[in-house]
Design brief:
Helices cover 10% and strands 61% of the residues. It contains one helix and six strands, in the order E-E-E-E-H-E-E.
Amino acid sequence: MLNQCVLVGRVVETPEIQTTPKGTSVAHMLMETDRSFRNEDGTLAKDLFDVTLWKGIAEECSAVCKPGSLIALKGRLNCDPYDKDGKKYYNCNIIAEKVSFLDQR
């Protein structure tokens, strides 16, 4: 089975590097993508994705990405289940495997 996603969108907030207890770099960022249809007011609908960045990708993105940066990423969808008030929920995010910076320099 294959778990792969490709997204093109804009960075919402600058990713900040953290270090795990074992010394691995990790960062999180929000990415906004346009949907293929417009809302009632004529604006494009948008989706927000929580993206996890590891090691070199985390370091590069924290150095290069800022709010509004246009990026493309390839990654995999990760969903972790949790229980709250007796109901099961899923927290889903994207684990980035490759990030390309699309802004003109």
